[in-house]
Amino acid sequence: MQRTRSKALGRASLFVILVVSALFAATTQLHFSTVDRDIVEARLKSYKGDDSQREATLKGFFQEAGCTEDKLIEQPVKGLKQPNIICELPGTTDSVIVVGAHFDHVDRGDGVVDNWSGASMLPSLYQALKNEPRHYTFRFISFAGEEKGLIGSKFYVNSLTPEQMKKIQAMVCMDTLALGPTEVWVSHSDPDLVRELARIALSLKLPLTRMDVEKVGESDEESFRQHKVPTVTLHSLTQETLSVLHGPKDNYGAVHFDDYYQSYRLVSAYLAFLDQEGTALPAAH
Fold first, then answer.
1. Strands 137-143 and 84-89
2. Which of 35, 227, 229, 240 could anchor a disulfide with 124, C-beta 3.0 to 4.6 Å?
3. Residues 221 and 173 sit within 8 Å (Cβ to Cβ)
4. Residues 118-176: pLDDT tens digits?
5. What is the enclosing helix (H) or strand (E) of 193?
6. CA distance 3 to 7
7. Phi, psi of 99 (to 5 degrees)
8. pLDDT for position 283
9. Cα–Cα distance between 274 and 262 in angstroms, integer?
10. Is the peptide bond prior to 115 cis by the omega test (within 30 degrees of 0)?
11. Which residue, 181, 233, 176, 241, is CA-closest to 207?
12. Which of 160, 170, 215, 224 is nearest to 195 (CA)?
């Protein structure tokens, strides 16, 4: 997450998201297959090395997950040594859901939480969805240069034609997970996407709370919001864990793996739900 100067969170306290809409009907079924805990944990622990090494590690994870050949693209980014990594899971339509997380990190600390936690989860999310036919085309993107000003995600959206941009129906951003239960940046997210995320969390009995972080920083969702793409941003920051960001405390010792794996389960189910013939997505931008 790209830090701003302020050290205060947008909201000082946590509160549970209340959902007015009904839970799923008994007939609702989500089709996805989560990856075993040991695989998700091994990927999270493979954080060592500079950003170039991380890019290579992540590319290997995507290949291991089955995203290969023309479905796995390294997009060179002007001004950066590292490319964006794009793994595409084709659907029956060319409408797109982007799932994004940056892989670069600052020099202080190991950058496990910010943001290897998001980047290393992407191949496991691909695996969760790949075995069932999909309505939407999913694009799992690990962005370079987020800490330098969202360079990778800005480059990606600027490389698209207006017609290609209109095909993107939603962007799910993951940044700074694993410090605790899943948080959602409500004030910076599309309300329909937040509501459906909350429904999934309640249905699966997984924790989800609100924590707005306007005064902490921004992440790659901002590049999409500027093009009026509906976004939702997931993280795990609280006032108590804020000091982990961009410092020596950002190491594997800060990780709460049980919470992290619950975040993985939640996002896997959420993506499967969004894929249900588009009924859960906001109106096209």
1. antiparallel
2. 35
3. yes
4. 999 999 999 999 999 999 999 999 999 999 999 999 999 999 999 999 999 999 999 99
5. helix 191-204
6. 9
7. -120, 115
8. 60
9. 18
10. yes
11. 181
12. 170
3-class DSSP state of 98: strand
3-state secondary structure of 109: coil
Measured CA to CA, the distance from residue 123 to residue 65 in angstroms comes to 6
- Spatial strand order in the sheet of 182-184: 15-16, 208-210, 182-184, 231-235, 168-174, 96-102, 137-143, 84-89, 72-75
Round to whole Å and give the CA distance between 164 and 178. Answer: 33
Q: How many CB atoms lie within 10 A of CB 72?
A: 18
Averaged pLDDT, 32-45: 97
What percentage of the chain reaches a pLDDT higher than 70? Answer: 88
Q: What is the set of domains in the chain, with CATH numbers?
A: 2-11+31-274 (3.40.630.10)
**Other beta carbons within 10 Å of 229:** 22
